[in-house]
Design goal:
transmembrane; 65% helix; ABC1_TM_dom; ATP binding; binds adenosine-5'-triphosphate; alpha/beta; four-stranded antiparallel β-sheet; six-stranded mixed β-sheet; ABC transporter ATP-binding protein
Length: 565
């Protein structure tokens, strides 16, 4: 908001105009009544025009202030959304896991909307409410000082009602917000996994799960509705009592002084303004307290520093694909024990390195660490003899391509997805890379070939096609190090063999890590790393490992048996 000083100044000036108009109108009306009492038609006309002018001035200022507040609120939320999204892009895997993706989405959408409302509210009411309250209070006191106790009584009654009702309402609003998050979360999860829901006939169970949170949401919404339905008659009652008391106790005064009839009008109007300011103030406090929680949640995103940082000025460039792990130990945040322990190995550039091990042995963790998705807790990882912590971001990302276990594509075209691997990839690059990944054939079958549409998450492609496209994206930039994390699992044996042969031929200078469940995927590798429960228990060629590593032989034997079956 500080960046928009002109908005702030404009809103401040307009607020002064609005408040002046609101405080002035009852006084003019009072004079009109007095003029009517004196049968002074000219004065009535002049004062009537004056009243209209003041009201019009207040109205115009109100419209202008609403426009300014809405503009400011829109700009603030747009810039928060942009900054928040850009910040999240810099987050490391561990940062994102800490927040969770669902939570980040709620912060970027719902929380920002809360802050947008807060900004609007601040500009429209924050200044106006206190000034109007104090002004109306003083003017009411000055108008009919004899009835001071009615003002005090009104303030006390309204305050008690506001604190009581809004206090309870605030709690339920909080619960509504929480349940709304759950409803959103369940709906999102359900829709993302609708195929699984249907194939396991989970529709009813899912509907029940949804209904449970939805009912909670309804319950709190009904309570808030009921409180609102009590609130309005309560305030009407308080104002009616205040007006009745005013009329009753001013009757004697009016008998003595006829001007009191005019004063009554403005006194009652000031009373109503006092009441409204307390109600709006209370509502504002309640909503603001929620919006401040949202603001805190957004601030948390903006102030979180990425767990992975790069030194763009003094960072070193990776010259070749030699990879070495030196005593690397790594533990995920929140895990009780390390996923990788004292891992040490070297791979020369151009080598093919297989990584095998049982489920949960740490293969994917190791794969991701080569691309510096996580930094080791102990030890170091070097590529091209540069510690990954001393590299430059772009250079590292160009040097190391990671093809993840789960092929993720973005909505757009095939070409746009492939260009994630190489910004300026031309047609030849795409054709060559898709040949390596055995993707060319099905891309050519698309009506628009490389301009073919990719739906959200690549929904219009089969699992094997998605994997081929993501391998294409990985190899298109001819990286120095290519990490294939179980990325050929959905390919048939023939295609997998062709991919490997093409990689060996076309990317012979690239160090290729092949993480695999199947030993058959890595038998030809120059070196195979055998992981067991986070430890590197053996390394060597297939032949050497069959002869020397019981863990490797056990995996090999079980898989051999399966193939025979
Ligand atoms: N993001 C994470 N947060 C916390 N713990 C994790 C995370 N990812 C993996 N782990 C833990 O680290 C260990 C190694 O997991 P990893 O995914 O590296 O195994 P893997 O050998 O690739 O298994 P698989 O063959 O089943 O893919 C497991 O015990 C797992 O629970």
């Amino acid at each position: 908001m500080k960046e928009k000083k002109s908005y702030l100044l404009g809103s401040l000036l307009l607020t002064i105009v609005i408040v002046t108009s609101q405080l002035w109108q009852p006084k003019v009306l009072q004079n009109i009544f007095i003029a009517i009492g004196n049968d002074d038609k000219d004065a009535v006309m002049t004062l009537g025009v004056k009243l209209l002018a003041i009201a019009a001035m207040g109205l115009l200022a109100g419209v202008a202030n609403t426009l300014i507040s809405a503009g400011m609120a829109r700009d603030v939320s747009a810039s928060l959304r942009k900054d928040g999204f850009e910040k999240i892009q810099t987050f490391s895997f561990s940062n994102i896991e800490k927040f969770s993706t669902g939570n980040l989405v709620v912060r970027l959408t719902n929380d920002i909307t809360q802050v947008q409302n807060l900004v609007m509210m601040i500009l429209q009411t924050l200044l106006r409410i206190p000034i109007l309250f104090v002004g109306s209070f003083i003017l009411a006191m000055m108008t009919l000082p004899q009835l001071w106790w009615i003002i005090i009584l009104l303030v006390v009654l309204v305050l008690i009602t506001v604190v009581g009702l809004f206090g309870v309402m605030g709690k339920h609003f909080g619960m509504i917000q929480k349940n709304l998050d759950s409803v959103n979360g369940i709906a999102k999860e359900n829709l993302a996994g609708i195929r699984v829901v249907k194939s396991f006939v989970q529709e009813e169970a899912e509907a029940e799960r949804f209904e449970e949170v939805s009912n909670k949401l309804t319950k709190h919404t009904i309570i808030v509705g009921r409180l609102f339905s009590i609130m309005i008659p309560t305030f009407t009652l308080i104002s009616s009592v205040a007006i009745a008391c005013t009329l009753f106790f001013s009757a004697d005064l009016a008998r003595v002084d006829l001007e009191v009839i005019g004063k009554l009008q403005s006194f009652i109007q000031y009373l109503m303004q006092i009441m409204m300011t307390i109600i709006i103030g209370g509502m504002m406090t309640m909503m603001a307290s929620r919006a401040f929680v949202s603001l805190g949640r957004i601030k948390e995103i903006l102030e979180t520093e990425s767990a992975i940082t790069f030194d763009e000025e003094n960072g070193q460039l990776i010259e070749n694909g030699d990879v070495s792990f030196n005593n690397v130990t790594f533990q995920y945040d929140g895990d009780e024990r390390p996923s990788l322990e004292n891992i040490t190995f070297d791979a020369k550039h151009g080598e093919v390195v297989g990584v095998v091990g049982a489920t949960g042995a740490g293969k994917s963790t190791l794969a991701q660490m080569i691309a510096r998705m996580y930094d080791p807790n102990e030890g170091s990882i070097e590529i091209g003899h540069v510690d990954l912590r001393n590299t430059k971001k772009e250079n590292l990302r160009e040097s190391v391509a990671l093809v993840l276990q789960k092929a993720i594509l973005f909505s757009g075209t095939i070409a746009e997805n492939l260009r994630h691997g190489k910004k300026d990839a031309d047609c030849d690059d795409m054709v060559n890379a898709s040949k390596i990944a055995q993707a060319k054939e099905f891309i050519d079958r698309q009506v628009d070939t490389y301009s073919g549409v990719v739906e959200e998450r690549g929904a219009n492609f089969s699992g094997g096609q998605k994997q081929r496209l993501s391998i294409t994206r990985g190899v298109i930039g001819k990286p120095k190090v290519l990490v294939l994390d179980d990325s050929t699992s959905a390919l048939d044996a023939k295609s997998e063999k062709l991919v490997k042969e093409a990689l060996a031929k076309e990317l012979d200078d690239t160090t290729t890590f092949i993480v695999a469940q199947k030993i058959s995927s890595v038998v030809q590798a120059d070196k195979i790393l055998v992981l067991d429960d986070g430890k590197l228990v053996a390394q060597g060629t297939h032949k050497e490992l069959v002869a020397t590593s019981p863990v490797y032989r056990e995996i090999y034997d079980t898989q051999k048996g399966k193939e025979v079956e």
